[in-house]
TrEMBL record:
Keywords for this protein: Signal, Transferase
InterPro entries, sorted: GlycoTrfase_DXD_sugar-bd_CS, Nucleotide-diphossugar_trans, Och1-like
Leader sequence segment: 1-26
GO biological process, alphabetically ordered: protein N-linked glycosylation
Name by which UniProt lists this protein: Glycosyltransferase, DXD sugar-binding motif
Organism: Penicillium roqueforti (strain FM164)
The family this protein is said to belong to: Belongs to the glycosyltransferase 32 family.
Pfam families (alphabetical): Gly_transf_sug
SUPFAM superfamilies: Nucleotide-diphospho-sugar transferases
GO molecular function, one term: alpha-1,6-mannosyltransferase activity
CC annotations in GO: mannan polymerase complex
């Protein structure tokens, strides 16, 4: 009996110990640590599992990531704006003036003398791109580049006098594309790349030369970067003068004729260009500026971003081939085919 009671006591002690251990285990959370890997670890429990990464904790419901402005969808490009130009004389997309010559033929074919003048440009400048516009192709050019500016487009297309259109056309081309405009009756003697002195190479947006009188810019040859405020000023000045001429006779610009134009040189030609450029330079420089600043200069002079060449450069013949005003760059032959009652060549 004593042995039996002893065994029953051990059994009861075992049972009590088992229930005591089980009860304590129920009160402690079960924790399991997984082996750490180079990139992530996992800590698990009965109630949740959390994954931790070296780069931070990843929440169960992550918020939307902020949109980087550089990653936003690219909007459709806007129609290019030509007028007015906001940046007057600063940093243009092109670092140099385009090496392209623009010219326009009259209604008759190009004569042999004019063809020799054209060839001189190509002979002296082998890399020069060249385009000669006709009446029809010039109209098409303006339609393409100024379609969003009907005031400019309609006025240009409506002008009935060839020289008025030609004077305005050169400004429209120089604004839209830049490069070199030259009338057909001009011979080139010196390569274009030498026209701008080295110290002004990266500062020049417009190149003009003085006429033989020494105080007016020649319009038969002019060189510019595209989209400069200076050419915008010339365009606006010419358009205003044409409208004023029409208003004086109570007609539209489409009804203008040569008898209504007081002076082509003053309305659309070199005098108009000179006044507009000087006025725009004064406005942008913020100081008085006029003809006194450019009269009879003897070396290339940079005014802000407009390079003015002495009259030997573009007007050597008319100025008597001066020997103290730099090299002779081009020579103007004054064919003057527009100087008649029609303001242009008579159609054959």
């Amino acid at each position: 009996m004593g042995r039996l009671h002893y065994l029953l006591g051990l059994l009861l002690l075992f049972i009590c110990s088992f229930f005591w251990i089980a009860s304590n285990l129920g009160k402690q959370p079960l924790s399991i640590a997984l082996t750490h890997t180079p990139r992530e670890s996992c800590v698990c429990s009965e109630d949740n599992v959390t994954v931790a990464s070296d780069v931070g904790i990843i929440p169960s419901n992550p918020p939307e990531p902020p949109i980087n402005k550089d990653m936003r969808p690219i909007s459709e490009p806007q129609i290019p704006s030509y007028l007015p130009i906001a940046n007057p004389h600063g940093h243009y997309a092109q670092s140099s003036i385009p090496l392209k010559l623009w010219q326009k033929a009259g209604s008759t074919k190009i004569h042999d003398d004019r063809q020799r003048d054209i060839n001189s440009w190509l002979d002296v400048n082998p890399r020069l791109r060249h385009e000669i516009l006709t009446d029809d192709s010039a109209d098409e050019y303006v339609r393409e580049h100024f379609a969003n500016y009907p005031e400019v487009l309609d006025l240009y297309l409506s002008l009935p006098v060839p020289i008025l259109k030609a004077d305005l056309l050169r400004q429209l081309i120089l604004y839209a594309d830049g490069g070199i405009w030259s009338d057909l009756d001009v011979t080139c003697h010196i390569p274009i790349y030498t026209w701008i002195p080295e110290q002004f190479q990266n500062k020049t947006n417009v190149v003009v030369g003085l006429e033989f009188d020494g105080f007016q810019f020649a319009s038969w040859t002019i060189m510019t970067k595209p989209k400069t405020s200076h050419i915008v000023a010339v365009m606006k000045y010419i358009i205003d003068r044409l409208k004023a001429s029409a208003a004086q006779y109570n007609v539209t610009t489409a009804q203008l004729n040569m008898t209504m134009i007081s002076d082509v040189v003053e309305v659309t030609g070199p005098q108009a260009m000179t006044i507009a450029l000087l006025q725009n330079l004064e406005k942008e420089m913020g100081v008085p500026f006029g003809r006194a600043n450019i009269t009879n200069i003897k070396e290339p002079t940079l005014f802000q971003d407009v390079l003015v060449l002495p009259n030997a450069a573009f007007s050597s013949r008319q100025a008597g081939f001066p020997a103290d005003r730099g090299p002779y760059l081009v020579e103007h032959h004054y064919a003057g085919s527009w100087k008649n009652v029609n303001g242009g060549e008579a159609k054959s």
